[in-house]
Amino acid sequence: MTARALIGGLLLATAVGSVGPYLTLYLLGSNAGGAFYTSPLSHFLFFVLVGGVNVLLHALRTSWALTSSELIILFILMAVANQSHNMIHYLVPMLSGPFYYATPENDWVSQLHPYIPDWIAPYQLDGLTGFFEGTSPDGATDLWKVWVWPLLCWLPLLVAIHAATLCLMVIFRRQWAERERIIYPLVQVSLAMIDDEDEKRAAGGFFRNPIMWIGFAVPVAIGAVQGLHSYFPYFPDIQPETSLSLFGVGIHLKLSVVALGFFYLINQQVAFSLWIFYLLSVLQRALYNAVGYVDAAEPALSVWSGQPSLVHQSMGAMMALVLSGLWVARAHLRSVLRKALFASPAVDDVDEIISYRGAVALLLISVGVMAYWLHLSGMPPLGIAVFLFFVFVIFVAITRVLVEGGVAMLFTPIVAPDAALSAVGVSQYGSSGLVGLAYARVWSNDLFNFAMPHCANGLKLAERVAGRRRHLFWAILLSILLGLTGGTIVLIYMGYAYGAINMSKGHFIWFNQYVFEYANARMQAPMGPSWDGWLHTGIGAALMTGLLMAQRYWIWWPLHPIGYPVSSVLRWVAFNAFLAWLFKSLLLKYGGVRLHNAARPLFLGLVAGQFAVYGIFWVIDSFTGMTHNALMD
Fold first, then answer.
1. Coil, helix or strand at residue 492
2. 441 near 515, Cβ under 8 Å?
3. Around Cβ 134, how many Cβ atoms within 10 Å?
4. What is the pLDDT of residue 561?
5. DSSP letters of 537-561?
6. Beta strands of 170-323 (E only): which ranges?
7. Residue 245 pairs with which residues in a beta bridge?
């Protein structure tokens, strides 16, 4: 790793983390990262860097141009930092919400505040009022101080979370990338940008391919029309989506060129299965409607979890997916442990960004820090164990779906706090544990803010980095921390400058009230475990186990099981999986592998063009002050 790659990557990571809150919460335009696991802001900057800046450096002096290894390092550090601002979008409102929104009507002062540790959040109302409602720059100087101590107390947890996720991905990298040969479709666009680069040419084959530019032009044209419509309402708008109805259940048909582009890169069977499992989940809900079956409302499930029977089946499927993955990887995991515990010379870990001994040790330490922090926040030991079990099952399962299924945009079917409460009941947590779970939603709830898929994709990209890569581990952690720090400073500044309640209503008005109202409601009406939830979890686990066995033992079996755990939350992208499968089938049938591969740049161009037009309007809107100019996902 060269010094300019490291320094440049850390500077870009800081910039990406810092600008994210402005683009997402103030401009309220096309999401810079919160709606994708693909780092749109990082892809846009990488496109400009490789296709523009590096071409200029090459023209000035060949030796000034960045090498492929250096470009990869820059992208990795940007991408992992891109998710950090999404966590800040939840952290800052959550810390301040229970104090600013406490009223005589909700009685949070007596019902919630006694269970909130005094170190976990700023409670000085004067400072928080200025943040939510805005204040003069002179008056905000001293008000910043209320944030310092709580944020420092959150720092060990945030470091432990990201260290644990990165260590897990280091441990699984060889199994997934080399033994199972997962293709990691979400990194293929960035890899294509630097493929075929050589010292004699300023730009690689990606930028010289006319087919790529044809695909690039499609989302740019659609995005330009949509963006101009925001400025000139009489200008025509394009919204490529519709829906069908089956017994009152909608089948969402939406064109997403990003999703279509990534789905073209995945296995044909996987694309077909994502569409079929989505249709089967729609059919299940339609049959429920047809026979008059109504899921009983489950108090443990918040607004982030959907229909109880379906989400519990998804939870069971995710558990089966993770456990089966551990079984398949048992030989590799034994090798990791032999290297970690006994320094076995037969196991080579020189190509990893941290030794297996370091990864295992740091993983255990990080999980210990997470558990101790959760204990200090009010959770009891059993509650911590159950919660962390669901956290890591969901994290690993969703990451596996992303790196194998190429799903660019995805909500988790059920979130870990809901799964934990449903599994063991409120009585196992108590009032202080419910408050601890509420604060844990900062990093375990809306999983667009978790780093594991970005770490997994980054490690796949790191295989292209020449030489030893050990410094990259610490660079990734540092870039995440710099992104978090920059995003926090910018977000708090914007709150005092503009008033947080004048920015994203969902984050600063709805979210931080709903979470604590939910916790307060569970305190007032405690319930035990959901046995119906356990039943459907078992059904989901059994079905997933059967699907995994069918894939393993029946060559003719047409469905890949990776689509089942997320079938209930694929409505935004499933139609694009069908289109990708259809295009791949037609091209392979009538043109063979040669035509299929020739069309690949077209779909890479779809992705690059979508993120490029996002970036164009981020810049335009920043200069004009236009807000709510959100383009097609």
1. helix
2. yes
3. 18
4. 95
5. HHHHHHHHHHHHHHHHH-TT----G
6. 241-246, 249-254
7. 250
Tokens 């990451």: give the residue: 399
Q: Quick one: DSSP state of residue 101?
A: T
Give which of 207, 471, 505 is closest to 352, Cα–Cα: 471
Asked whether 392 and 358 are in contact (CB, 8 A), the reply is no
List the one residue out of 408, 398, 413, 465 whose CA is nearest residue 43: 408
DSSP 39: -
Closest listed residue to residue 360, CA positions, set 160, 174, 168: 168
What distance, in Å, lies between the first and last C-alpha atoms of the chain?
35
Task: Please state, in angstroms and as integers, the Cα–Cα distance from residue 93 to each residue in 140, 192, 508, 515, 566, following that order.
Answer: 17, 39, 6, 11, 28
- CA atoms of 445 and 420, how far apart (whole Å): 12
Residue 106 · residue 517 · CB < 8 Å: yes
Within a 10 A sphere around the Cβ of 486, how many other Cβ atoms?
A: 23
CA distances, 511 to each of 34, 233, 446, 504 (Å): 15, 31, 11, 10
Split the chain (633 residues) into runs of 10 and give each run's mean pLDDT. Answer: 91 93 87 66 93 90 89 93 85 91 92 93 85 74 83 95 96 94 92 70 78 95 92 87 82 90 94 94 86 72 77 95 96 95 91 94 97 96 96 94 88 90 90 93 79 92 87 94 94 91 90 90 87 93 96 92 92 92 95 94 95 93 89 80
For Cα atoms 310, 311, 315, give the angle at the middle one, nearest 5 degrees: 120
Residue 175 in contact with residue 571, Cβ under 8 Å?
A: no
Confidence at residue 487, expressed as pLDDT on a 0 to 100 scale: 93
- Read off the tokens for 535: 């039943």
List helix spans (H) across 292-347: 308-328, 330-342
pLDDT of amino acid 304: 67
Phi then psi for residue 235, to 5 deg, are: -70, 140
pLDDT of amino acid 85: 79
Cβ atoms within 10 A of the Cβ of 113, count?
15
- Which residues lie below 8 Å from residue 145, measured CB to CB, with a gap of 6+? 127
pLDDT on residue 196: 59
User: Among residues 146, 23, 21, which one has the least CA distance to residue 618?
Assistant: 23
Q: What integer pLDDT is reported at residue 1 of this predicted model?
A: 79
Q: Report helix, strand or coil for 249.
A: strand
Paired strand residues for 253 = 242
Q: Which residue bears the tokens 């295989």?
A: 463
Residue 342, both tokens: 């006994």
Let me know the angle formed at the C-alpha of 605 by 20 and 476, rounded to the nearest 5 degrees. 40
